Each structure stands twice: as C-alpha cells, then as structure tokens.
Amino acid sequence: MSRFQRRGFLSIAGLAGLGGVAQAMPMGAPHSGKENGRKMAGTSPGPSKAHAPPAQQNPHAAAIPDFVASLNRAEMHKVDGGWARELNHAQFHALKDLAVVNMGLEVGCMREMFWRQQAEWGYVVSGRCRIMSLDEQGRSSVDDVGAGDIWSVPAGTPHSIIGLAPTGAEILMFLDDADGSEFHTNSISAWVAATPPELLEKNFNTPQQVFVASKKEPRWISRLSNPGDLDTARKNARIRPGAEKIVYLFSRSNFYARSAGGYMQVVDPMSFPASRPFSAASDVIHVNGMREMHWHPHAAEFGIVLSGTAELTVMCTDGHQKTARLDKNDVWNIPRGQGHCVVNRGSQDLHILTVYKADRYAGYGLSDWLTHVPVEVTAETLGLPVDVIDHFPMARRGFMPR
C-alpha cells in the first residue's frame, strides 16, 4: 500500500458524548525578550518589536505542562536587517534531540557566510529566500525557496541565506543537537577579522594592505546592494553539475494523507536524501478536525503551531493526560512513543509542523492497531461490545471524513 494512503485526521464534531476531556490550559498572552542592536527597518516577516507582558497574566501559567514552550517568550536578538530567537535545552529542558532557531531577514539582507557544528534543517515560514552552499567536493549550489519549502545541510557545510523580494523571509532552522545555538557558529567575517594580515596574504595570495584597509567588524546579518536574479547568482557562483540537492519544494509534495478533516505532507530521507538526520510532517487540520490518537516509534516529536489554535493532549505513562492550548509560535516536545492527539480549537485552519530526528517518518494510529487484532481482544480491552468495535475505522486510507 502506498505510503501516501494513511489515516491521520478526524472530525471532532459530535464527539462530546464520548466522555470527559482533559481541561485545556491556555498558554497566555505571548511576549518576547529584550531587543539587541539597532531597530530594523520593518520589512522582515515575523515579529517587528518586543512585546510588553500583558497587564493581566494567565492565572493557570504555573500549571502549563513542561512539554510546551513558546518562541514568543524567547529572547529576541535584533540588528539592522534581521532578527533571531531560539529554543534549545537551556531554555526548554524538554528538548533532548534538537534545537530550533526562528529568524527573519529583510529583502536583500544576508545571514553571513557561516557553518555550524550541527546539521541544519530549514523551513520557510513565509516569504522567499536564497540558499547558497558548497559541498565536500567543492561544488556550489544556489537555489531559491518559498513558503513551505525546506533545505538541509550537514554539519560543517558552509552556506548562507538571503532574504528575497518582495517581503524577505521568516524561517525556522532545526539543529541536530539540543545544545545548538544560532549565536555559536563559525563565522567567516570573524575569522578574517581575527587573523593577522600576513597570514591572510599567504592564504589568499593578496597583499596584506588590502585586508588592513578593508578591516571591519564581524557581521551576523548584513545588507547586499543587490542579490540579483537566480540565473545571474548561479553564474557568478560558478555552478557545476553533480552537487547534491540541498533544497526540496516541500510545499508542492504529494499528500501523505488527506480527507475532509485535513491533510498532511511528509518529508524524510526516503523522499529527500539530504533531509537526514531529520524527518518532518506539515499538517493542516480543518475547523473541528483532529489529528488522530497516535504515537511515533523512532523519535521524539517537536511541534510548532504555524497558524491557528491547537489543543494538544498527551497520554503519560502513569495513566494521566496533560492538555495544553497552543497558538502561533507555541511549541511542544513529546518523548518517543508517547501517545497524543491534536484538535483544531480555532475558527480557521490549523497549520502545524512536526519534526523528528529520525531517518524515516513513522507513526502508529490507535484505531489502526485496535482493528488489526481479533475483535474479541479489543472488546475485552476496552469493555465494549463487539458490534461497536466493528464500526472503528480500520482502512489506512488517509483522513477520516467529517
């Protein structure tokens, strides 16, 4: 059976009669940290200024489960041309496998040429950006990506990112180390600035006076006079064939599951080899829809709300449930194998992105398991009549209809 024919989403209309539901705990009004650097010009997608704490705090804030956090509360670092904030293990102790960076770049502004000690898996939240990299054989690549598309580069791979017209870009970058950070990378400008001119002369076969005259402070984000069109950029980068494709038009990929309740797209190293070591799913859950009760066998699930309002319920191994209400930029991290479900509690489509440090995407649906053992076993387990079990959805056919 095709891997694109799996059940994933349910309609929750009329489910109130199924019994008690764990109380949702609102995340409360978001706020971000202090500003660092100069005020940006305001063309970069995403937050444009730090938000003050609300006058009245959420009375349930102390009870928010420890598996949720929010990028809206992360410290905001801003300079002319862009901004960034992050969550890693230091800020969100539930993170064990990865860290996440949220960045905004204005039109023509560049995250400087750099490389990381971690693998980087990137997702475009909004806008457009250009990804430039160099592989181990010295072959360069230059590609443009838009909202919903991804890129992936191994640890140590030199690359850079430029925001493109008309709005720049807001992006997410996932690092394969929970202690990874946007602010501890290998910077070319910092290396050159710290290197004695005589060594630069030897390395680049260029008179050291040139470097002395042009010496400038390291740049994290800087402006280009004109990033140019893609064909010109590729020509100037001396592109030659053979480089591994590091970008993937995830927004145009086939549906993994689809029904009246929502739809899902999945990417992993099976469909996009450069995605290693990450797999991911983009879920759109329609109003009154539900991502079915399920779990993932290979890795913890990191999730983020890209738009809409979600209610996330997690089944703990001690038999209790934890439920949290989540809005845009709120995140969660659920340990491997932990049962959970997501409900759209808003008035518009809910869009979530879930990321796994795993070589393939996999999940088990509760209903799927219960309908693939002798019906008497399920009836005894749940204390339900056999004829009720017979109505459980069993075909791995995508999303359940409303």
UniProtKB/TrEMBL annotation:
InterPro entries: Bicupin_oxalate_deCO2ase/Oxase (IPR017774), Cupin_1 (IPR006045), GPI/OXD (IPR051610), RmlC-like_jellyroll (IPR014710), RmlC_Cupin_sf (IPR011051), TAT_signal (IPR006311). Keywords: Metal-binding, Signal. The keyword Metal-binding applies. Residues 26-59 are annotated as: Disordered. Residues 69-212, 253-390 form the Cupin type-1 domain. Residues 1-24 form the signal peptide. Gene3D superfamilies: Jelly Rolls. Residues 50-59 have a biased composition (Low complexity). PANTHER family: OXALATE-BINDING PROTEIN, SLL1358 PROTEIN. This is Cupin type-1 domain-containing protein.
